[in-house]
Amino acid sequence: MAASSTSPSPAPSGHQALRPNTAGTSAPSARMGEPPLGAIGMARPRVEGMAKVTGAVRYAADEPMSELAHGWVVTSTVTRGRIRDIDTSAALAMPGVLGVLDHSNAPRLNLDAGSFFGPDGGMHLLQNDEIPHSGRPIALVVAETAEQARSAAMALRVTYDEEPYDVDFSLEHPAARPATAFFGEDATVGDVEREVAASTVAVDERYVTPEAHGAAMEPHSATAWWEGERLQVVDSNQGPFLVAMTVATLFHLEPKQVRVRSLHVGGGFGSKSGGCGPQLVLAVMAATMFNRAVRVTLTRSQVFQTVSMRPATDQRVRIGADADGRLRAIDHTAAFEVSKLADYLENCTELSNTLYAARAIRTRRTAVPVDILPPYSVRGPGATPGSFALESAMDEVAERLRMDPLELRLRNEPRVGPVSGLPFSRRNLVTCLREGARRFGWATRDREPRTRSEGHLLVGTGMAATSFSAGALPSTASITAEADGGFTVAIGASDIGTGARTALTAVAAEALRIDPERIRLLIADSDLGPAWSAGGSRGTTSWSWAITGAAAKLRSQLAGATLPLTVSFDTTESLGALPPMERHSYSAVFCEVTVDPATGEVRVRRLLGMFAVGRVINPLLARSQLVGGMIMGLSMALHEEGVRDPATGRHVNGDFAGYHIAAHADIPDIEADFVPDYEPGDPSGIKGVGEIGTVGTAAAIANAVWHATGRRHRTLPIRPDRVLEEPPPR
Amino acid sequence: MTDYTRSEIHLCVNGQSHRLNVDNRRTLLDALREETGHTGPKKGCDRGQCGACTVLLDGRRVVSCLTLAVAADGSDVTTIEGLASDGELHPLQQAFVQLDGFQCGYCTPGQLCSAVGMLAEHAAGWPSAVTTDVSAEGPAPELDAEEVRERLSGNLCRCGAYPSIVRAVLETASRAEVTG
Questions:
Q1: Which of A67, A104, A301, A579 is the 20 to 30 A CA-CA neighbour of A550?
Q2: pTM beyond cutoff 0.80
Q3: Parallel/antiparallel/unpaired status of strands B54-57 and A519-522
Q4: CB-based contact (8 Å) between A13 and chain B?
Q5: Where in the numbering of this chain does the 2Fe-2S ferredoxin-type domain appear (chain B) (predicted)?
Q6: Span A594-622, mean pLDDT?
Q7: The complex's ipTM?
Q8: Top-level CATH class of B91-179?
Q9: What is the pLDDT of residues A507-535, one digit of tens each?
Q10: Is A244 helix (H, G, I), strand (E, B) or coil?
């Protein structure tokens, strides 16, 4: 089976053809035995691209509705305590106001509803007078227009009985407890203490990352209304089927009573996964109470305050190595914040279990409950902050051994999973490392830090190795061979900007052996059947598997069949039959930074990632996702920090002026490319590309800052005040 | 009785005339989205920090979330829906599609309107914070990647399409120079 090209062709540069480039597809019929068309592997613009550049696509808050009422969310101004009273009298008398929902009158919810980690009190809004964290939604004001609702919301008079809170997170917090073993037990291989003692060099350092937000450009919005016994919802989320199931549980409804659509979603990055956002809980409550279509759109500040974020982490990494660079021990203890309202696992030790061979590996994951809203996945959950710790520590080992950090990685390639003992399905890390180093010009790098300068700027380079787990989760697709020669492919997928529409069209075209233009793809609707969401880098793999399965089934039944003919395929059984293996994507990230010691400003001048991500469905779109992921990693390294004020417990920088994400001027031209790769445990040979770009970038940048300045930064972000140097005495 | 909370205004949006009776608190962004049916401009932050609501107001780029509708009375407004003419995409729109200058597409209406306004500012000789020679008699700044990045930094993109956006803008600008 052909692997992806090492140098995928760039986007077609001609401006005349705006339709997807389908050159070479001569529209053969869907008969058996014809060769694949090569729909997979071709760079094509997005199928919805024209609609996106003309403003024609509609996101959740854009759907025109008649008789629409607007809800305005009111959030707690204290961090912990109880609501003494909400005086609604002034608000209710204001023009256009339909009513106010709060804990005294809101519908009762099923408190078992939650995420994979169990019941999630973050969803159980307006059920009692308790304030568990700052910014907790405590009321919804519903009015004819958004201005009226907002104005009335400001007229609510809320009084509280405040209680002490605790947001003082650290590894040593007295409430620290072992984290849930949702993704498997902690690792205990060999004797870490003995191996560290026998090592020539040993690194033992702490690495700290702050709360970080998905901060998708589209603020969460939901519109809900009843049609008879059926609840209709248009919502911003990463997986309409899973959201519909959560809503059904939460509101004591039959699953078939709930339909959720999310036709276009303005980014997710984890912030629209995890079940059911506050906008949706409140919109359904209001639609039920007022028997109207109600739209609830969070403000940007409310997105920061009420939507899950990546928890802060505090990690200790010990690595012991022999003089030749072979690792004796990896000991990774990772603490992260959780809310008292819900359990969660920030699986920081994922890479420590699989990236390097060592005689002893010990991982310990520790959850620290504090008074914050429930954290949840943000792009590359666990792996991203965990990689910062592990790959910074590896750089420190190389420093102490006076060894090239690239060479250190190459010397510690495992033959089987270092903890699991399982074989690797495909492990192409070395190819990424060598090819990345060649393109970057790594061989000429100075061994000593603080060697190069250009004028007043210090210049340094750094690198990191990365893996991210690959796989698929159960999904169902159906395909109808239509009488007019077209094929309708239906799957409850979600395109949050990943290019799922374009990728799945190519996958279906190849599986059916037809021209992509004959495919009508239906996604983003919970009525299309059970499907995994756009999350865990498992969206496209999960949905593609279901589509290829349905296509094979359809092709076997098509001869002489009466049209239209519909078949469905559920991947649950096929997935269960997969032999257990270490299945991962890999990458190597290289970067060059300049540091101005007088201002503390760090700028990334070059950033290059080589990726082994299986067969590449569409190199144009896959590259965009990888580059975007690396930009999020750059932003994490240098800019992003959710600041919780110890004096109030509140998140104090909840907007884009305070919570900095990378802007145009921060970003150089970034190179991302692919090495030939193929996943044998997937019918199309693919792995995910959504998250791996983010994972290794922060460590590569931190290591480059060390190389430029000679100073380690073990706390993110690498802010100017942390880099700034005192001028030398005159 | 006169209602002092509302005003009659006139907006010309993408060449079409609209007479509106607006709440004085209504922003231009909300007037476009809720009253004239232009949902292309997006409310990414509603406080001028993200640029997703950028439109051209009498040819100049503004964040429509920080512009009151009453203050735009009598103005020509161009939104993302109005960049194409006679069914022909604006060259920038074409370049965004071909070079993948977006992923989720939510910031795209603002990026495109901002880029159109920026190219006009550059053509008029306006300097930016990274222009080396800002003297009146200095040469017109050459539009390189650094200039484009600086001039578009008011438009955030969380998907990280920045490198493709800059390529699309530079390619469009160089074509415009060639064709005059």
A1: A579
A2: yes
A3: unpaired
A4: yes
A5: 7-83
A6: 98
A7: 0.97
A8: mainly alpha
A9: 999 999 999 999 999 999 999 999 999 99
A10: helix
Which strands, in side-by-side order, build the sheet including A258-261? A97-101, A137-143, A68-75, A293-297, A221-227, A230-235, A258-261
- Mark which residues 389-418 of A lie under 8 Å from B by CB: none
For chain B, what are the domain ranges? 6-82, 91-179
Amino acid at A543: W
Among B98, B108, B143, most A C-beta atoms within 10 A, so best to mutate, is B98
pLDDT at B178: 65
Q: Would you state the structure tokens that stand for residue A571, as one six-digit string?
A: 């991947």
Homologous superfamily in CATH for domain B6-82: Beta-grasp domain (3.10.20.30)
Contacts of B37 in chain A (CB under 8 A): 64
| CB-closest option in A54, A217, A624 to B156 | A217
Residues 6+ apart with CB under 8 A from A294: A68, A69, A70, A71, A142, A223, A224, A225, A283, A286, A287
The answer to whether A497 and A266 are in contact (CB under 8 A) is yes
For A:85-124, CB contacts with B below 8 A are none
Which residues, 6 or more positions from A306, have their beta carbon under 8 angstroms from its beta carbon? A73, A75, A135, A136, A137, A278, A298, A373
pLDDT in tens, A553-569: 999 999 999 999 999 99
By C-alpha distance, the chain A residue nearest B129 is A665
Return the ∠ at Cα A650 (arms to A172 and A119), rounded to 5°: 70
Residue of B nearest to A618 (CA): B100
Q: Mutate one of A54, A58, A495, A620 to test the B interface: name it (highest B CB count within 10 A).
A: A54
One DSSP character per residue, A299-323 reads -HHHHHHHS--BPPEEEEEEEEE-T
Angle between helices A539-557 and A500-512 in degrees, nearest 10: 30
Contacts of B30 in chain A (CB under 8 A): 146-147
Residue A122 has pLDDT above 90, yes or no: yes
Domains in chain A, please, with CATH? Answer: 66-164+217-267+272-306 (3.90.1170.50), 177-212+310-470+583-723 (3.30.365.10), 472-576 (3.30.365.10)
**Would you give the end-to-end CA distance of chain B in angstroms?**
57
